[in-house]
Design brief:
Length: about 425
């Protein structure tokens, strides 16, 4: 058997899918290599969500074209978000396989002449050599049936499809057996998990099953949430299930109702605030992050200021802010009144500056408090991990802590992370 190399960019769903593909290849006897030159199979997980990511993917493909010229026997596969596969095939004829999301069977068939991927979706790869991470993402649902006007996901990942709960439980059990302690359930619109399955199952019901049925699993998170689908049953699951973390990612995108209408988001700022209020009432120690787009076509200064005002009022722990990036084929890409890049950057920096102050003031009261941290690894001489509310914590320890739940007293806070000292290491 040969060697494979996987290059990944973009969201955690790509990372999760790349891990599963890597596990499947190793189960077939393939060996992972860090060197592209020595790989027999190169897989590139693509992202099209922003122009910047697409540019990086195309740069990678230019390099792979050269590599293929030098070593024609190398098989090259492109997976993840690619949009119009036919157009990509015409543009990059040297690519042997396009593995679009949702083409699972096609993937197996098309790779069959190179590798036998019968076990690509096997639940328990035997003695997989690669240790999974302490916190692993798991794709539970692909695609999106909504049509937000800025978003390329519906055309790159297709209609919504859920994985069967037994398959997810099997994958989580396998990861936990191999060392994982936390799973992050991934989807573009995670509350819609299970609606297409028969019998139907909700995300909250899946959380119950994972909480109750997987011994050794310490923590469960899920993302990305859609405000219109975050119902009371899910709030109760976050409030009551001990392994489900008090941590949600709930994109607001804009703090202005007219902009939300133009984006076709399907909710108002008032409805969003009301939802956050209800979640916080039931889950008082909630960690909440959001996504914001600045410089959407036609966004006036006053509308942008409405976003700043919403961020100051709601007070998120983390804000992922992006300058609007026109994606070919999406409605907003041809809207009039596209904003100049410089103006989009100015608005982006204004959000970052505001959020720095908000996050500092949220984190400052944690000084001297004890937080529970799941340690994920070591970097630059310190161990790092996250609280249940998803705050990054650094802590010094001479003994290995990876995979442990430890109590840490916070000794320093900033907008982005906490420093702390180890109290009582819990038994693994
Ligand atoms: S809900 Fe999310 S994934 Fe679906 S179209 Fe809107 S932004 Fe894209």
């Amino acid at each position: 058997m040969g060697k494979f190399h996987i290059w990944t960019i973009g969201c955690q769903m790509n990372t999760s899918d790349a891990r599963r593909l890597g596990d499947g290849l190793e189960a077939q006897g393939f060996e992972e290599t860090a060197s592209r030159g020595s790989a027999d199979l190169l897989v590139l997980y693509s992202c099209m969500v922003r122009q910047h990511a697409e540019d990086k993917v195309r740069n990678q493909l230019a390099e792979l074209r050269r590599l293929k010229q030098q070593k024609p026997a190398t098989r090259i596969a492109v997976a993840g978000c690619v949009g119009d596969v036919d157009a990509w095939q015409r543009q990059y004829p040297f690519v042997d396989f396009f593995l679009a999301p949702g083409q699972d069977l096609t993937v197996r068939d098309r790779l069959a002449d190179l590798v036998e991927l019968d076990q690509y979706y096997r639940i328990e790869p035997p003695d997989a050599a690669r240790a999974p991470r302490i916190s692993e993402g798991i794709t539970i649902h692909q695609g999106c049936n909504r049509n937000c006007t800025f978003c390329i996901v519906p055309s790159t990942r297709g209609r919504e499809r859920s994985r069967a709960p037994e398959e997810i439980l099997g994958e989580v059990r396998d990861l936990v057996r191999r060392g994982t302690r936390e799973v992050v359930l991934l989807s573009q619109i995670v509350e819609r998990y299970g609606r297409d399955l028969r019998p139907r199952i909700s995300l909250a019901q899946l959380l119950h099953r994972l909480n109750d049925e997987v011994a050794g699993l310490e923590r469960i998170r899920f993302l990305t949430s859609y405000p219109g689908d975050f119902h009371a049953e899910l709030i109760e699951a976050v409030a009551t299930l001990p392994r489900v973390c008090e941590d949600i990612n709930l994109p607001l995108q804009s703090g202005d109702d007219e902009m939300l209408r133009e984006m076709r988001r399907g909710y108002t700022v008032g409805l969003y605030k009301d939802l956050v209020g209800r979640i916080r009432e039931r889950v008082p120690r909630l960690g909440i992050s959001t996504d914001i787009i600045v410089g959407f076509p036609g966004e006036t200064e006053a509308q942008f200021e409405n976003t700043l005002a919403a961020l100051a009022e709601i007070r998120f722990d983390v804000v992922h802010v992006a300058a609007y990036s026109p994606r070919p084929g999406t409605p907003a890409a041809i809207y009039p009144d596209q904003l100049p890049l410089e103006e989009k950057k100015r608005r982006l920096h204004a959000v970052e500056a505001l959020q720095k102050g908000v996050a500092e003031s949220i984190n400052a009261p944690l000084l001297g408090r004890t937080v529970e941290v799941l340690v994920e690894g070591e970097a630059k001489g310190k161990w790092y991990g996250r609280t249940r509310t998803n705050k990054l914590v650094h802590v010094a320890s001479s003994e290995p802590l990876a995979g442990r739940l430890v109590d840490v007293r916070v000794t320093q806070t900033s907008a982005w992370s906490l420093q702390g000292e180890l109290l009582v290491p819990a038994a693994v």
